[in-house]
Structures are given as C-alpha cells and as structure tokens.
Design brief:
six-stranded mixed barrel; 16% helix; five-stranded mixed sheet; Cathepsin D, subunit A, domain 1; 2 domains; 25 strands; Aspartic proteinase Asp1; alpha+beta; single chain
Length: 432
Amino acid sequence: MARMSLLLLFDLLLLSLSCSPQFSSATVKTVSRQLLQQQTQQSWWQSKARLPAEPDRTSSVIFPLVGNVYPDGIYYAALSIGNPPKPYFLDVDTGSDLTWVQCDAPCVNCGKGPHPLYRPRSNQLVLCEHPICSYLQLTGSAYNCKDNSDQCDYEIEYAGDESSMGVLVSDFFTLQFTNGSILRPNLAFGCGYDQQGWSTSGFSPTDGVLGLGLGESGILSQLHKQGLIHSVLGHCLSKKGGGFLFLGDTLIPRSGITWTPMSSSSFGKYYSPGSASLFYGKQYLISRDFKVVFDSGSSYTYFADHNYQVLTTALAKQLHGKPLKEDKDDGTLPLCWKGNKPFRSVSDYKRYFNSLVLGFGKRTLLEIPPESYLITTKYGNTCLGILNGTQAGLENINLIGDVSMQDLLVIYDNERGRMGWARAKCNKNSKL
C-alpha cells in the first residue's frame, strides 16, 4: 500500500472514531473496537505476503486513538501482539517506560478488559541477563535478580497508588509503516498478573499500558535500537474524542511547530521542556522555577501545591462578580462552578476565563486556552481540570496532562533533544 493510500485510509478511520455528542461512549467504543480489529486482521494477512528483509528508519507507524478526557479519562491505541496477532487496547502513556498487558500467568488480580487475558508461553520469558531487565531493576523495581538465568520479575508503581506486578516476556508486535511495510519485531513487555488500584472490580476499557517514556524498556527505544524508526513520537488528542499517535519522524510537519530544547538533567525519564514562567492572561503568576513535564497517561493537569494555590486565587479574583458560583456538590473534580442555568459546552462560559500561558526560555510559549483546562460535567457545571499535584504525590513537579494537550500536536524528538507543539484539528491528519 502506498504511503498516500495509507494516510487516506487512516484519515477516514479517524473520522469514524471521532465521537459526536449524539452517540454514547459505549457505542463509540463498540464501533472503534470493530474498526481496529478489522485493521489488525488485514495487517496480519498482508504481513504473510510481504515482510521487508531490511529495516527502514525513513518511515513511521501511526495508531488511531480512542477515548476522551471526560467522561472516559483515557486515550488508548490498539496493538496487535502474538502469533497469530491478537488485539489489545493499551493506555497511551508518555510518563512511563514499560508496556504491559493483563496476563494469565495465572492472574492474581486483573480487571475485566475488552479482550481475553494475554497467555505467554514458557519460551517467551525474558531472563535476568537481558539488558532491559537490568534497566528495570535499576529504576525502582521491588525485585532484584539473584541469577542471570532467572526470569525477570518487575513491579511498577504509578501516581495514585496504582501498580502492576508481573514478569517480563517477549513476543511479536505486528506494525504497519507509512511506506507500506509490515514488520513483526520481537519486543519485550510486561505480563502483568497482579494489578492494584486499577479497575479490577468492574469493566476496564483497556488491557494494559503502552509505555512511551524515555527509558530502555519503552517500545520507542526498542524499535529504535532495532533500526526500525528514529527515536521520535508525537500525539494529537482530539477534543471531540479520538486522535492519533505516531512513532518515527516522517510525519513531522515541515513548518508551524514551536520547538524548545528538551530538559533531561532534572526530570529523569519524563519528557520535559524544563522550567517555565506561568501567566494567567496578562497577569504574571509564577517565575521560572515552574518545573514542567508532559504526561499523556494523566487525564488532568497537576500543579504543585504553591502553584495550584496561586492559580486558584487568581481564578477567584477573575470570577468575582461574574455569574458563576462555586458548587461543592458536583463532585466531579475538586473545584467546580455553576451558572444561572446548566452549561451545555465550554462555549457557554469560557468568556469568563483567560488563557494560561507557559513561557520557556526567551521566546517559546505554550498557550492553554480555557477549553484546555476546564471541563463541562454531566450536571451542567464547569470544573477546573488542573488539580493539586502535591496532594497526588507528585511533589514539586507540574504535570501537563491530556486535558491541556487537546487539539495540540505534541512531538517528542529524542534525536535532536527537543519538544514541539502546534494547534491542530486532531480528529484528522490530512495536513501531516
């Protein structure tokens, strides 16, 4: 399939995934699941006919995304794993490295996901001698190998008291590239048999996590080391639901991107443009000690306690005398307001708020308009999609989550040590 044909197909797929207000979340997920599974099956049969002998870093992989900030609180992609390949829906997370799926090893504590549990074979176990195992155990895993021939156990903890415990395995991932190639690289990932803090009592829209962080255990790093792509990724999360994710650098627009150096000294595995100044409208709120990281695995944005208090104070002053009153009964998020009548969308109330602006370096700005830090709840109120990060265990880090990256093309270019962004209509990729 030629590149233009693939992009056209992907454009049509994204349009079908973009949820309209008249459709329920369940309906959108059902249709999306069917489309993505059809794509998976097609890729499998095509892969039997054509497998390039040599890797090609001049191409990229595109994944359509499903989900939204509210009410789902998640964006996920479908990946095909195994031989024959089976689909798994994975939460797209740039804030962690290891990809894992719920696993029957057997499972100790797993939620009911959209697909059957992944079942590994004994010859798929990754041993302690593997470099990825060494990396995992050096970066905070509770397990330490005693012998190189042992299996590699892991435990990953996330903010919010969530965790996954399991064993490292490897299997084939079926990937279709924009140059028409279909490859099935063997990649290491987590077979998670004990999940804590996740939706283990009810239905979960995902089967696991797609770790896209900077670490060696990440899918991006593994694909790069195998010579398949350049170490670049980008995502575009649509306000209307859905969006797209790409791995590789061939889809970076030639112009229109605001670039800034990526900071690596203070933030470890996180993608960070460094420290920033914060403005609310034209009001200068916080100086350049405002440390920022980007994390697509977080539904909402988090500010460290002092910064959060400064922001909420500025909002209170801004809303004084306006027809919005704090509503402590909503319960959707910690800080909500109601109007004289229920709000139907952000258009009903965004005129009462100003944009937030992050300033990096001398001239690099990121504008966060009201629709990228406020949500409209099912009760007809509006809530602040920026939460107190210190209370959530993030200490002094300010985390830019999905709510503030909606309709924003965000690019993480590890090859050139830079990050970039541009406003975009993320329910279509025709301009890439």
